[in-house]
Predict the 3D structure of the following.
Amino acid sequence: MFPPETNSAATDAFLVSGVRSGDDRAVTELYDRFSPLVYSVALRVLGDTGAAEDLLQEIFMQLWRNPNLFDSTRGNLGAWLSVVARNRAIDLLRRRKPESNLEDVIVSVNHDMSAAADRSRAMQKVREALGGMPGPQRNALELAYFEGLSHTEIASKTGEPLGTVKTRIRAALSSLRKAFA
Amino acid sequence: MNVHEQFAEDLALYALGSLQGQERIALVKHLEECPGCRSELEFLRGDMALLALSTSGPVPPARSRKRFIDAIMKEPRVRTVSSAVHKWNWWIWSLPWVAAAALAILAVALWSNNAQLRQTVSRLRQQSAEQEGQLQTAREIAMTLTATDAMRVTLVAAKTPPQPQGKAIYVRDRSSLIFLATNLPSLPQGKAYELWLIPPVGAPVPAGVFRPDARGSATVINPPLPPRAEAKAFAITVEPQQGSSSPTSQPVLVGSGE
């Protein structure tokens, strides 16, 4: 019997240790917990349900085959999965090989993303933060995050100087972090 | 947090995968040497994770879950043994099997021990029954020999008056001695007969003090003796009532082995 979902990241670490032991119930529990997050990111980037489903399958199969890709002492599983899903979706979108090894992706986030209720509250805050950003700032961030454009591509697309693009993206991420401070 | 300002904007782009060219190469080199910037990169990825939450809403179809479960059931799981947690889990999962094996071994051991105990009990019962029979025979002999109402008859040649007699039966290996006497003269107050074991060499050994009954009969059974003392003869003397450590009078009866 697994602990209830509301038991935060500590239960994620417990479930990951179960996956390391080859427990299919543990990885199924993690799938039920985080598949909506992984799928929604993949769908937002790829814009295709079939491709998003394939990516969802790929990411959880990687976790099943090699659970040591995620080090529970160095981050939050939900945050790690969302970053891995976004990066892999961008690789697929840009038709390029993965730029980094999954085990090298370390994510530090103070917000607990294990429980659905916590994720729902965080989602509201993020949307409010994005809605409060100046249009060009939010646009630069979304072009980088959801389309995987480089800063030169963004500059070319928006007709803005490279320095301005860099500053806007940094400022947008800083605003987002402040919303959770 | 110690983040080098000249890399601050490039770090945000690098986290997003949007930094290209020489700027990317320079930042990667710097990250290898700068823990502060590596830490900031981890927090920037955290910001990206929060940004992912803005996409929340769509959920994968049910077929995705079935597809995933089917896939993990088909794939043999490669177990890893790198972490202490996993080792602990291995023990947790193995514990029921280890416990079952231990119980099975214990059950076999108990069954074997029980069988041995049954055999031992059976053997002891048999020995006890044999010893009980021997003891009963010995009791009957001793009761007959020592009974005060026993009729003791000494057979002698016809027309010969009864004479004092003693019969000693001695088993050296067991230091066991039974002495029977009849027709002994009565003794004055404060006196008693004392039986002596006379070895081939050395002084006589005390073998019991006794007073005969009114008819001159007496019995001495297994008096304290030195282990395996060799006897050349036995004798009776009259001694003080408490007995003597060496004879103080001439023997009344004496006899050697046949």
Residues 157 and 163 of chain B are 11 Å apart (CA to CA). Residues 80-88 of chain B have pLDDT under 50 and may be disordered.
